[in-house]
Amino acid sequence: MQLLKRLSNTFQKTRSPLGFFGTQRRFLNLHEFSSKELLNKFGARTQKFIIASTPEEAEKQAKKLKGELVIKAQILAGGRGKGHFDNGFKGGVHVVKDVSEIRPIAEKMLGNRLITNQTSPEGVKVKKIMIAESIDLAREVYFAILMDREAGGPVMVASPQGGMDIEQVAHSHPDAIFKEPVDIFQGPDAGSLDRLADKLLFKSDSLKKQAVQQMRSLYDLFIHLDATQVEINPMAETPTGDVYCVDAKINFDDNAQYRQEDVYKMRDVDEEDPREVSASSFNLNYIGMDGDIGCMVNGAGLAMATMDIIKLHKGSPANFLDVGGSANEKQITEAFKIIQSDPQVKGILVNIFGGIMRCDVIASGIVAAAKQIGLKLPLVVRLKGTNVDIGKKILNESGLKVSVVDDFDQAAAKAVSVSK
């Protein structure tokens, strides 16, 4: 059950720049309605829904729906149901019995900022709402497909205990979570799908058939859209004997962006940190944090170690920034611009291991970038690897106020010192 242990551990690393099973964090984050559109495209069953950007549109489009309706503010954050708006309106999720109730609620949501336990104190402006037909849930289960390094490919994970935090299930009832590895060249076989349908306690032949079809559709989505994770929580059984995918979380592989243009067009950059958006456009991996020491490092592992050693010296990293193994002068310049744009940053630590990237090239890039943007912050640089002596000479003769330090520990201590 090592997969389950790693699954449980990973779910708890909400602030970590690393994602599922040690892969780098993915930038694409889709709205709920976008995920449902993708599910529908691949044949997975969801509630019928509409999207609206104005109260007028919401009232008009909602007439196409039947029965009790659910109104959901669309922002890239959880906790919407228990959130509140800056105008005092309570809740980002509401259930109504009549279309006439739609417009007053839409007026209170659209154009206002929703504050939840996962947003900043200022909240996020709601630009769209989703209105969906409500369904009765007789039973909720959990189903996910993950790319797992240990299994060497996809793994289907399922639990009859859905509709709750799966990490809690993994911790308290590990025997209630089941997995089926998938041969990525063959896809899921009938036996593995049938076994999971039985483990999920779908009793009748009709329910089992629907569950198997849903799982197969979700796997098709997973493969064809280059996903690293498709999580349905809950997958639900209704009293009328239907199976629905009620809520979905989908992660995608950034490396496949070039062949998934339609998916990436769904990205809502307005709700993302503009520094992260800028960084991704220059193939830089940046995640803003709340410290005061800007970090520029090549390699995710070295970046994590750099942040750890800064904390060891009682400092606080302002970011995770991996420039990769082949950064050029333009990328380094953009990296400095992003770091310097953070008003909290009081000093910068550059920690580079010159393997593929030569130290003289990175040093020349640092000098050119610092001069171009008029860098005013204290700068500490540690270089190791190919052409390190040439690189240090370039920095020392540059005329910049830069501290060139050989030792990793000493470099971190220096960065903490100059940032006080």
Polypeptide structure, described:
The protein is an alpha+beta fold. The chain is built from 14 helices and 19 strands. It has helices at residues 2-11, 32-41, 55-62, 102-109, 166-172, 190-199, 205-224, 261-264, 274-281, 300-312, 329-340, 359-373, 388-396, 408-418; strands spanning 49-52, 69-73, 84-85, 93-96, 113-115, 124-125, 129-133, 139-148, 153-159, 178-181, 227-237, 243-245, 248-252, 285-288, 293-297, 319-322, 347-354, 379-385, 402-404. The strands form five sheets. Strands 8, 9, 10, 11, 12 and 13 form a six-stranded antiparallel β-sheet that branches. Strands 1-7-2-4 form a four-stranded antiparallel β-sheet, covered by helices on one side. It has a four-stranded parallel β-sheet with strand order 15-17-18-19, with helices on both faces. It is globular. The two termini are 47 Å apart. The model is unreliable at 1-26 (pLDDT under 50).
